Amino acid sequence: MNEKTIDVLAIGNAIVDVITDSDDGFLSSQGMAKGSMRLIDAGEAERLYEAMGPGREASGGSAANTVAGLAALGLRTAFVGQLGDDDLGQIFAHDIRSLGVDFRTPPSADAGATARCLILVTPDAQRTMNTFLGAAQHLDKSAIDPAAIAAARIVYLEGYLWDPEQPRAAMEAAIDLAHSAGTKVAFTLSDGFVVERHRADFLRLIDEGKIDILFANEQEFLHLAQATSLDSAIADFAGKVPTLVVTRSERGALAHSGNERASVPAEPIERLVDTTGAGDLFAAGFLAGQAKGKSLEDSLRLGAIAASEVIQHYGARPELDLAALAAPLL
Amino acid sequence: MNEKTIDVLAIGNAIVDVITDSDDGFLSSQGMAKGSMRLIDAGEAERLYEAMGPGREASGGSAANTVAGLAALGLRTAFVGQLGDDDLGQIFAHDIRSLGVDFRTPPSADAGATARCLILVTPDAQRTMNTFLGAAQHLDKSAIDPAAIAAARIVYLEGYLWDPEQPRAAMEAAIDLAHSAGTKVAFTLSDGFVVERHRADFLRLIDEGKIDILFANEQEFLHLAQATSLDSAIADFAGKVPTLVVTRSERGALAHSGNERASVPAEPIERLVDTTGAGDLFAAGFLAGQAKGKSLEDSLRLGAIAASEVIQHYGARPELDLAALAAPLL
Q1: pLDDT higher than threshold 90 for residue A224
Q2: Which residues, at least 6 apart from A141, have a Cβ–Cβ distance to it below 8 Å?
Q3: What is the distance, to the nearest Å, from the Cα of residue A273 to the centroid of all Cα atoms in its chain?
Q4: Between β-strands A37-39 and B37-39, what pairing exists: parallel, antiparallel or unpaired?
Q5: Which of A55, A71, A112, B184 has the highest count of CB atoms within 10 angstroms of its CB?
Q6: What is the mean pLDDT of residues A62-67?
Q7: What's the pLDDT score for residue A3?
Q8: Which domains, and CATH codes, for chain A?
């Protein structure tokens, strides 16, 4: 057993978000499925950017948002993701390092431009994401440091990384390294369409016992289980995944671990602004609780607290002092 | 008299803001004067950025914020400012064009990196700005199109541009072009330290009758007048400046024009978040009123409305529908 000097090491797309206000009419005119993430190429990114209103830029990336939240909660974290050698890459690297996250993946001049996600926020605070992966899709296996994986208590992986080939191979390698080093693997399904594209792979990982903690929202989980009821989906997977966490937006969240089951309501909020990052921050709160040996219910509650902060402002990283908000439980 | 197809053409620093939360201790440790703007070089920009927390990026620049506000209020606007050929330059150009502002200054690969302003927002919502001018200081006279100046009803200039030599010459040229084309010149003093550095020049411009509309906050105006009371400063300048506008933060604003004087209180707000852009948006509201032939008092009130919107969120450009907020008056 290695000495665990990192609580959570996350591997994900290193993305800068470009956030703009939009309306349902614009989404339909662009043929977008509201609330989802779609991949776009450089040409489409340029065309859509030109059609969009003025933006606010902020570091994003699903797993990166989760480690940002974990760092804000005081945990020891590391991140692995591929940036290009440009202004946006510098912004991403600065933001994540300034939170205390150990981030060492060197930017690549050959990998193309740093990934960006054009996020349209509608008046109902729902976010619709259009991701140009750029450099992020060239995250290579060689960026995974076996010593860092072994030093982590949990490796956290995002399903989004399953789309491009190179990062998928890097993740498979990370999973194997983790299990031979006594490091747990946490995995988020990320998006309904991602589950549709990679359902067979995700089921295989689960069947092979490679996922220790699975995060999904209700819709993603029903897609995975090909089920219509949450209860039957949970019954189906409870035996295959040591810890299963399902988020249900304003209806709260539930978890199943061994013989234990817990659920919590959503935290009350003052104003709903932008739901981007809600799932990412929920995962941060939950993992913080688990890393600190808290109960399943308290871990869920920590997830709900972290998610409630991030949906009350634009951007997918916490702005308020998360550690102070979580102090009663952590 | 030329046909006026542009309501306001602004010339200013083309800057992307990097906004972070900070506290008084950090400001003192960095030797910053709270609430002011200081110029920094590339090395200091890098050092300070490394010491700062995570940022939010958004297009800024004082005069650029003002035209952004004017465009949001439905006026016909144009902007002139120098960008570098990089990601931040693309962000600035996209944001201002997406608002309908006519922006044609080509980015320059030789002028260096696009300007950035590292803005520290303290819990009292005060902003302290550290500007690396980069490409912006290479705004050349050749970027000023005489036909565009002649087509504008008002040319709006920021005092900040007086620091670097090239833009100062460009502004002097723009002022002369404006006056020979029947275009009014509006000018903002920008900052107390800017006034200290260039007081003699600003007084000369005023004495030569080159400023038709002067914007200042109380402190800047007292610096300019070397006065201790606002009344005596106004008495001193009322005869020299056709329209004089003085903003007084939470105490509202006043204006003096010909024999007329008006004042308004600040608009009530729900929560004070970040005062960056308050003066810029006040100028936008006031100029919109003047361009639409509104009374001095209604123009002030429009300024107060636009300023009140921008101080209730991070970033110096409006997020809510300014035209709707201003509709009762405009």
Answers
A1: yes
A2: A166, A169, A170, A173
A3: 19
A4: unpaired
A5: A71
A6: 98
A7: 87
A8: 6-326 (3.40.1190.20)
d(CA B70, CA B92): 17
DSSP secondary structure letter of residue A107: P
**A-B contacts (CB, under 8 Å):** 60
In the predicted model, is pLDDT for residue A263 greater than 70?
Answer: yes
Instruction: With CB atoms and an 8 Å threshold, state whether B94 touches A49.
Output: yes
Restricting to A residues 73-112, those with a Cβ less than 8 Å away from any Cβ of B are 86-88, 91, 94-96, 98-99
Number of residues written out for chain B: 330
Strands of the A37-39 sheet, one edge to the other: A37-39, A127-132, A115-121, A15-21, A56-59, B56-59, B15-21, B115-121, B127-132, B37-39
Q: How many other C-beta atoms are found inside a 10 Å radius of the C-beta of residue B43?
A: 9
Q: What angle do CA B251, B284, B276 make, to 5 degrees?
A: 60
- Print burial letters for B223-256: b (CB count within 10 Å at least 16), e (below 16): bbbebeeeeebbeebbeebebbbbbbbeebbbbb
Nearest to A185 by CA among A164, A156, A208: A156
Contacts of A57 in chain B (CB under 8 A): 56-58, 91
DSSP secondary structure of A71-94: HHTT--EEEE---BSSHHHHHHHH
Nearest to B317 among A54, A88, A99 (CB): A54
Report CA dihedral (B3, B71, B309, B330) to the nearest 10 degrees.
Answer: 40
Q: Give the CA diameter of chain B.
A: 55
Within 8 A of A91 by CB-CB distance, chain B residues are 18, 55, 57
Name the one residue in this structure whose structure tokens are 């974990």.
A70
Rg of chain B on CA atoms, in Å = 18
| Residues whose CB is less than 8 angstroms from the CB of residue A77 and which lie 6 or more positions away in sequence, other chains included | A6, A7, A8, A9, A10, A67, A70, A71, A100, A101, A102
Strands A243-247 and A253-257: antiparallel
Q: Residue B2: its pLDDT value, please?
A: 65
Least CB–CB distance from A87: residue in B68, B88, B95: B88
Radius of gyration for chain A, computed over Cα atoms and rounded to the nearest angstrom: 18
- The candidate with the shortest Cα–Cα distance to B304, out of B274, B243, B261, B263, is B263
> Can you tell me the ipTM of this complex?
0.93
In this complex, the residue of A21, A56, A68 whose CB is nearest that of residue B56 is A56
Q: What is the mean pLDDT of each run of 10 residues along chain B (330 residues)?
A: 89 98 96 95 97 97 98 98 98 98 97 97 96 97 98 97 96 97 97 96 97 98 96 95 97 96 97 96 98 96 98 95 95
Interstrand relation of A127-132 and B184-188 (parallel, antiparallel or unpaired): unpaired
pLDDT over 90 at A79, yes or no: yes
Using one digit for the tens of pLDDT, what is the confidence trace for A163-178? 999 999 999 999 999 9
Strand residues in A258-319 grouped as ranges (E) = 260-264
pLDDT band (50, 70, 90) for residue A138? very high
The one-letter code for the residue type at B207 is D
The percentage of chain A sitting over the pLDDT mark of 70, rounded to a whole number, equals 99
Residue B97: closest C-alpha in chain A? A54
Per DSSP, what are the bridge partners of residue A20? Answer: A120
Among B20, B26, B59, B87, the residue to mutate for chain A (most A Cβ within 10 A): B87
Contacts of A96 in chain B (CB under 8 A): 54
Per-position b or e across A293-330, b if 16+ CB within 10 A of its CB: ebebbbbbbbbbbbbbbbbebbbbbbbeebeebbeebb
Q: Tell me the pLDDT band of A307, cut-offs 50, 70 and 90.
A: very high
Structure tokens at A7: 């609580």
Query: So what's the pLDDT on residue A1?
Result: 56
